[in-house]
Amino acid sequence: MDDTIRSNLSVWKRLQDENYFENHPCYKGISDFGGQEAIQAIEWFVPIREQMKIVVIGCGYGRETLRLAPLVDRVYGIDVNETILKKAVDYLAARNVNNFTPVLAEAFAEDVPEGIDLVFSIVVMQHLTRDLVRNYFLHLAKKLSPGGGFVVQFLDEPGVDHEKTDASNTGGGEPSISWSPWQLVDLARNAKLQFVELRTQLVTEAALWHWAYFRKQE
Ligand SMILES: C[S@@+](CC[C@H](N)C(=O)[O-])C[C@H]1O[C@@H](n2cnc3c(N)ncnc32)[C@H](O)[C@@H]1O
Total structural domains in the chain? Predict the structure, then answer.
């Protein structure tokens, strides 16, 4: 593991140990807000099926998993440490979601099984280094079942240096990094995935969200 990856992971472990969600101005604690946008985004590209096994990268306390898990067979939620994964298990169990498997980020390549139908992620890729993102795509692409794919959201802000490898820190302490459409094409090619489509939303005055749909090659 190189120094930028190690340092990004340790920032996030610290943020979670310091109650990131409870202190964050947008989340304002661990609560049942949103999550529906995850379902909507997936259904832009693929129908959700009961038999699906889904991986959520950066599951946090389980906000989107709460909506997703009742619709599918199993959700594997990856996050940085036991602190946040325990919160996710407790949050989801208290809401009768019992098909959630917590996975530590540092062990995902071993602990996520083969036969994954969908890899999903929202508000996470912008907080990781490019190498961490490439690593997730490379390893999880190999675990996809035939017809499987990725539906993942990326941030793109104006005036940023897209070539920058690592993420600078924003006011909140989280790293923030932009991805251009062509960098997403490279990401798909690097993981030997078929780049199917991007769907782009203007989410604030100065932020685009690219929803990428990449599929396992036939
Ligand atoms: C802004 S939160 C979003 C959480 C959740 N997706 C949501 O929308 O509520 C970013 C999440 O990514 C997690 N994260 C950071 N680095 C990660 C990594 N290398 N692998 C997996 N998750 C990571 C953080 O711990 C945090 O839970």
Answer: 1
